[in-house]
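DATA CLASS: polypeptide
GOAL: derive structure tokens

***
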Amino acid sequence: MMENAKSAQLMQRAAAFGLGLLTILALLPSGCGNRAKPGTAEIRIGVILPMTGREAKPGQYQKEGIELAMQQINQKGGVFVRELDKKLPLREVFYDDGSDQARSAGLVERAMTSDNVVAVLGGYSTALGEAESVMPDRYQTPWITTGAAASTIFSRGYQWAFGTLSPTDLLGYTTAQFLGTLVDGGKLRKGLRVALALENTDHGVDYGNGIRKWIEEHPGYFQVVFSEKFDLGSPDFSGLLQKVKNVRADIFLADAHLQDYITMHRQYTQMGMYHQMLSYGARGPERDARKAMGDATNYIFAGIWWSKDLPYPQAKRFVEDYKTFTGREPDSWYPATAYDATRALGAAIEKAGSLNRTAIRDALRSTDLKDSLLPGQVLRFGKNGQVNTPFVIVQNKPDGKTDIIYPQDAATGQAIAPKPK
């Protein structure tokens, strides 16, 4: 409706200045009419991810997951569009947002209004995802965030926003739940003291809330004795870490993005700190971190949205396909959530049988990807647009090994707890 109103205004202005029909048509937004242009030979998908700046590495991995999925779909002839009675290939319309919020939002707007896309994928990180999330409803274009999970994105009643990451508060809750199983199994004792360091974002708020919720529901297991926020991209965490050291907690749980994890843990190690269990939220097994810090990353555990070691045939195929596509194995969870977002979008377009954006949005709401890579093997968007798949807990082991240690039915090894000194 908004696009139609804009189109009418442009036509009135053009007519007032005596412009011809071709000029009027040139002024109209390319997404006008909420569908692709007649005679379409491809399905254009906007992809907005960071290739430069602080989030460049995860952005690269997510882009590779998207491109692998598109390649596989196109090798099979593309997506069948019933309305056109033919298969069409997917075409990526890509922009690098430079890890900048304002640029990220502006590029999503550009893709939705000027590039004739039927949907947009992207939004890696909470900060970038939140910036992008205001655009889908404004321009009535489906948007699937492949890398943002903050509850704020999915609690505002948006009708065009979807996400392939389970909520961050569930990450925190699962982390505490896992630690609780170590108590039940006799590896940790009850009443241990927990220190929290939370990034100053909605992601950090959700993570801390999830941990506290489990602890409140299970009195006597743990007590939070310290909680403080930190700014993203800080070059020095020594002041925060000294406070953590002073409270003499038994467990240290930090919520950090990749670069902050590397910086913080390097300083943690230099300060000679030790805790019985140590986690940086959803970060831990990344190659860059293990390469940068070596054995210092051993025994760190992380709650992640996907692991290459999940015992699903489709996960194993994905790992092999990704290695063929990029020359290396997937790094942590990043490419898998983007890969499945692309597959879910392709399935929704086929289910809609149309390139109409509203029809695609409605199909996404009822899409079931039953061979999903994600834990539980089914990708289904909830009423708020976000998936609610389980997390897996992994732990770094010596010699570059990483094991799934929770839940037990997916475990590839046993948790080592307490962490050796």
User: Anything to note?
Assistant: The chain has two domains: 31-166+313-380, 169-304+392-410. Residues 1-33 have pLDDT under 50 and may be disordered. Residues 65 and 335 are 4 Å apart (CA to CA).
